[in-house]
């Protein structure tokens, strides 16, 4: 059943190339995006003036990636909110708000309550879900399915990648419908997105380095994760994975926030993962993150750096460099998280923990 892996989580991590390919499959026709399930009238999609993404946990981290993509491509103000906070805060939602509910299970009660609240205010709701026939897509105006297959391990991995890929599809679809991007721009973006499954496989094929690192770090008591832009939600997700399955204190930060407080945590030997954006994207973004690596290293941190192939600027300040293939800054979110998933899974396995059924957690949280 586990296909030769120690856990369902390990198996699901290694299924991610196929999972993302399955999310993308059949959605591009003659260079244009087709989302057949999207039965919300295009005129409604053209009239929306705000998007609110509601989700919990890992799905909320996927939503945080979506914000960068949707605002960049569609120029629609996009907020990402934990569903339980949204619901109890009297949020401003109108008929011109598009609410995007992300949920692997489609049964998370907090997210469902947020969907109901949004619809009562007249908002249109699109659900991004993995489980057909589940409650959230049934109650939404439209549903986009991830098609990543059943996820058994409590800690979400392949559904996270499917959620991000589905968010990209939604963002590009909105840009197409609203005319924010030219058809050739959308085709070029989709062509790069379709390379991602092969690139995921490359990251998985080189997992031995991270697995060794995880076994060596079994006794760690605190690990920090830093990133900017989509590296920020990646840092949050890396920290969440380590907390939930390895029971290690972990925190994800926006790297720019360091000097506003968290850098005080750094002392000799503190492990810090840093997610570095592509040096071929915005230069200032890349150089800021390289400076952040330098800053924590100068205070004694052990720097574990996830960087694109050929990015040599990180070498002087990295204790360990984990390589990922080159892609667009936005799409890197589908690659850079994988070493972090493998790290947590391998570390928890080495500690002898129940990786698939971590203590105190349930796969689907159907109570508020
Ligand atoms: C973490 C994890 C949880 C879920 C969250 C939402 O690995 O699995 O944080 O992401 O409970 O679940 P869904 O996506 O089913 O709504």
From TrEMBL:
Active site per the UniProt annotation: 363 (for fru-6p isomerization activity)
Gene Ontology biological process terms from the UniProt entry: amino sugar biosynthetic process; carbohydrate metabolic process; fructose 6-phosphate metabolic process; protein N-linked glycosylation; UDP-N-acetylglucosamine metabolic process
Catalytic activity as recorded in UniProt: D-fructose 6-phosphate + L-glutamine = D-glucosamine 6-phosphate + L-glutamate
MF annotations from Gene Ontology: carbohydrate derivative binding; glutamine-fructose-6-phosphate transaminase (isomerizing) activity
Keywords: Aminotransferase, Cytoplasm, Glutamine amidotransferase, Repeat, Transferase
Domain of life: Bacteria
A single Gene Ontology CC term: cytosol
Subcellular location: Cytoplasm
Class of enzymatic activity (EC top level): transferase
Domain SIS: 40-180, 213-358
EC number(s) per entry: 2.6.1.16
Subunit structure and binding partners: Homodimer.
Role this protein plays: Catalyzes the first step in hexosamine metabolism, converting fructose-6P into glucosamine-6P using glutamine as a nitrogen source.
Protein name per the record: Glutamine--fructose-6-phosphate aminotransferase [isomerizing]
Lineage of the organism: Bacteria, Bacillati, Actinomycetota, Actinomycetes, Micrococcales
Name of encoding gene: glmS
């Amino acid at each position: 059943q586990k296909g030769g892996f120690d856990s369902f989580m390990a198996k699901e991590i290694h299924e991610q190339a196929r999972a993302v390919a399955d999310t993308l499959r059949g959605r591009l026709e003659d260079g244009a995006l087709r989302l057949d399930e999207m039965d919300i009238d295009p005129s409604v999609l053209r009239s929306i003036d705000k998007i609110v993404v509601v989700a919990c946990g890992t799905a909320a981290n996927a939503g945080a990636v979506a914000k960068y993509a949707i605002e960049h491509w569609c120029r629609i103000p996009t907020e990402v909110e934990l569903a339980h906070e949204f619901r109890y805060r009297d949020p401003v939602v109108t008929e011109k708000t598009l609410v995007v509910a992300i949920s692997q299970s489609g049964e998370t009660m907090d997210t469902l309550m947020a969907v109901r609240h949004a619809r009562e205010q007249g908002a249109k709701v699109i659900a991004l879900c993995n489980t057909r026939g589940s409650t959230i897509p049934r109650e939404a105006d439209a549903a986009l399915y991830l098609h990543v297959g059943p996820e058994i391990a409590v800690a979400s991995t392949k559904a996270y990648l499917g959620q991000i890929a589905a968010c990209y599809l939604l963002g590009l679809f909105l840009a197409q419908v609203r005319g924010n991007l030219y058809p050739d721009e959308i085709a070029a973006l989709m062509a790069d997105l379709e390379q991602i499954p092969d690139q995921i496989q490359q990251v998985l094929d080189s997992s031995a380095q991270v697995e060794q690192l995880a076994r060596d770090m079994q006794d760690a008591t605190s690990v920090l994760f830093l990133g900017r832009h989509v590296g920020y939600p990646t840092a949050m997700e890396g920290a969440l994975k380590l907390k939930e399955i390895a029971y290690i204190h972990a925190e994800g930060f926006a790297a720019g926030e360091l000097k506003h407080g968290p850098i005080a945590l750094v002392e000799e030997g503190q492990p810090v993962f840093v997610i570095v954006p592509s040096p071929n994207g915005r230069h200032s973004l890349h150089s800021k993150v390289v400076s952040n690596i330098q800053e924590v290293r100068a205070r004694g941190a052990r720097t574990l750096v996830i960087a694109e192939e050929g990015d040599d600027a990180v070498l002087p300040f990295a204790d360990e460099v984990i390589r990922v293939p080159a892609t667009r800054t936005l799409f890197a979110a589908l690659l850079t998280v994988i070493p972090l998933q493998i790290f947590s899974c391998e570390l928890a396995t080495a500690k002898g923990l129940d990786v698939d059924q971590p203590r105190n957690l349930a796969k689907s949280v159907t109570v508020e």
